[in-house]
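Weekly structure sync, notes
Attendees: PL (lead), two postdocs, one rotation student
Agenda item 3: pending single-chain targets
PL asked that the sequence for the first pending target be pasted directly into the notes so everyone works from the same version. It is reproduced below exactly as submitted, 499 residues in total.
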Amino acid sequence: MSEFVKHKQKTISKIDELLPPCWVHTKRHIDLEESGRYIGTQYLKIIETDSTGFLRNRLVMMLDSAKDSICVASFLIADSYIIQAMLRASERGVRVYLLTASETQLLREPKEDNEFDALRLKEHIRTLEQLAGRVLVRTGENLHSKFVLVDPQSSQAQGFLLTANLTSEALTRNVEIGVELDSDEVHDLFRQFLIGFWIESSNELLEPGSISKIEPLSDVVLPSPLQLLSTTSRTSTIKQRVDALIDAAKSEIIVSSFGIDMKHETTQKIIQAARAGTKVRILSRPRPNKNTMNALIALVEAGAEVRGHRWLHAKCVLADTNEGWSGLVMTSNVESHGLDKGFESGISLHGKDADSLYAMAENWWRNFPQLLFTKKKLGDVEGDVLLWSDETLKKITIKKRYEEDLGEFTAKSFDEIEGFQPNLVPEKTNKEAVKYHEHTFHWTVLPPKLPPDAKRESSDGDIDVYKYGGESYIVVQRAAQLSKARKLASELHAKIVTL
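Predicted structure, written out during the meeting:
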């Protein structure tokens, strides 16, 4: 019977299959991604967060030096080092103020792709209870800015504008920026703090468990920042500065943002710049947000390059203008709630400070482990990939080849043995989280066999004829018998089989 057994194989190539938009991990940076974060570098006025907690240590030292007052704004607050420094200041008699997001605002954030998780929310709420009575806490529906100001009305004022929330993860894990402010800049940002405290806040926490609603001072006109940029109910200078940078770019624009809204006017300006031939590079976080993903896809299709990091949260814009690199760091995403409305802060950077920001962005560009593609073929990719499909990001691994043994199949007739092929469906025969450039199937085809209860009826030389259930069977044992067996089978309307 072994003469009639056929071992078959077929390879199906998927190398030309077009993938949906996808984030592709680049091998040379994968180790950096797996280790969490590479160590950041400090540049003059601008500090990048890193795993050593360098920026957090600077903030704690500054808070510990406060003599009169501390003004803090942070969408979230849950870092024990910062919290303890604020409480120590309060115990020294320093007046400490905090502007932060309301619980209602946090609960409105989409759970699948927001800046925090349920644990951070609980820690944030627990922190506010801990601070209540010792720190004057005010919350608001639009408060999203991040800054720390120490003695902001004195000649020795100190401060930082941050893209990071005051949480441990943001200050040691995320890709974030802190900009150290000089005394004039602190005085200027204090103007926005007063607007947030007196006009933009809606609730006050004076003691644990007791949140009081407060009315804004609508009849009071408070001056807006003059040097620094802001988004408030009365100003949108961050957007004005971002748009001006895009318009002033000679040949290149770099944007880093956690969120980008496809429909926003500023996003459309960036897309138009890319279509017009300006080199546009975008740094973002791969996340299942429809607006952001649609914007990033549109940017790639317009000619921009997009790189991603799973912990990116920094927001900044750079452009090569006639005066050299110019830029800004901001707390706002490239979205309406941030550029057009809300409570956000930003700072323009020029000269060596803009050059420092550019050096930081270039370092990110070299090291960020993911690239976004919109028209990538399966055969061009190997390794881990995030596929954007059905408005979600699905992690898969792409490998070169897969070998699968489908087992044995018995042919219905001798004529079917040579050409028999089972149903070959790669998508259903391997794990869904893995795709392959090539899928090779192996299978064995066995000849039809004589039914066990068949009775020998006659012989024609070395070929026996059997009967079973009204059917006749011609039994062959060697390939040399096939020609004679076929003729006999035709005469008797019999089926050729083996024992």
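Discussion points:
- Residues 2-18+376-446 form one domain.
- The longest strand covers residues 392-410.
Action: rotation student to compare against the earlier draft before next sync.
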